[in-house]
Design brief:
nine-stranded mixed β-sheet, 293 residues, alpha+beta, globular, 6 helices
Length: 293
């Protein structure tokens, strides 16, 4: 927030007590060329001075592992009133079922009358949960937010393979095999850690300049090269005969649909994602998210 006047921080808005309340969370970005200790001290003084109107939560470690910039703090502020808007901010949206990410971003952009908007990771229409939407100058920080770890809670349905690897796709195969809870638990270590994962045919990966999902919808056979991803933690939350509920924390580029497809194959069956919710993105959790309403 450019309250120092010396360009130490990037962001937008006013840091005065009589300024509008901004819709958060907001980041304070510290340039590596600055004197870290001095700028951090200034930021803490500002936080203390503005505490009554600008609740500030200091974080000692970066929110994300960044190269050029280090995130040094996060400003949690109040929801704007009917006549207060913030066009330079991150809005953490609880995306509803059935709405695409592009549609959701457009809706947030209209609400805040922002000139530009972007997001930090697509959620398919059938997915719900955290969609981090950047407005105005905050869009410059989207590449950094994209690097954040993500946590997903989802349901894998056994016995059917789908061309999209989720419930919206066409059935491509069936299996009578239903893995037991013990078999699933025994398989989890193989699907944790650094993995080579092939993205789904219905994905936003570009093939010859075109999106893979466009080619797949046109009936073309899409073969995508595996890529290295990392699953930091995988937990089995519940298991019944035809499905299982999981929670994983993973790196950028991880496709939950591919993870389910691959673990189903290793278990000797077929499977697809029938429900998916993103519960965390970096430091943002579900409690930080707001609805469009």
């Amino acid at each position: 927030l450019n309250y120092l006047g010396g360009g130490h921080f990037s962001g937008g808005g006013s840091a005065t007590t009589d300024g509008p309340k901004l819709f958060g969370p907001w980041f304070l970005f510290l340039d590596h060329a600055d004197s870290n200790e001095a700028v951090i001290a200034d930021a803490k003084k500002m936080a203390a001075a503005q505490d009554a109107q600008w609740p500030f939560k200091w974080m000692n470690e970066p929110l994300y592992p960044l190269n050029r910039t280090t995130v040094t703090g996060q400003l949690q502020v109040q929801t704007p009133g009917p006549h207060q808007t913030a066009s330079h901010a991150w809005v953490i949206l609880a995306k509803p079922l059935g709405m695409g990410s592009t549609q959701a971003v457009a809706a947030v952009r209209r609400i805040f009358d922002a000139r530009k908007a972007g997001h930090a990771g697509t959620l398919d229409p059938m997915a719900t949960g955290i969609l981090a939407v950047a407005l105005g100058e905050a869009t410059k920080t989207v590449p950094f937010a994209m690097e954040a770890e993500k946590t997903y809670r989802f349901t894998a349905t056994w016995g059917e393979g789908r061309d999209s690897d989720d419930a919206e796709g066409r059935v491509t195969g069936t299996s009578d095999v239903r893995p037991s809870r013990e078999a699933i638990l025994a398989m989890l270590p193989r699907f944790t850690g650094v993995l080579s994962q092939g993205p789904p045919a219905y994905s936003a990966v570009r093939v010859g300049g075109e999106r893979a999902y466009d080619l797949a919808r046109d009936g073309e056979t899409v073969t995508l090269e595996p890529r290295e991803i990392e699953v930091f933690e995988a937990r089995l939350l519940n298991a019944v005969q035809d499905s299982a509920e999981f929670e994983i924390t993973c790196s950028k580029g991880t496709y939950v649909r591919s993870w389910v497809r691959d673990i189903a194959g290793a278990l000797g069956t077929l499977g697809h994602v029938s429900a998916l919710r993103r519960t965390r993105l970096g430091a943002w959790e579900e409690k930080d998210a707001v609805t469009l309403e």
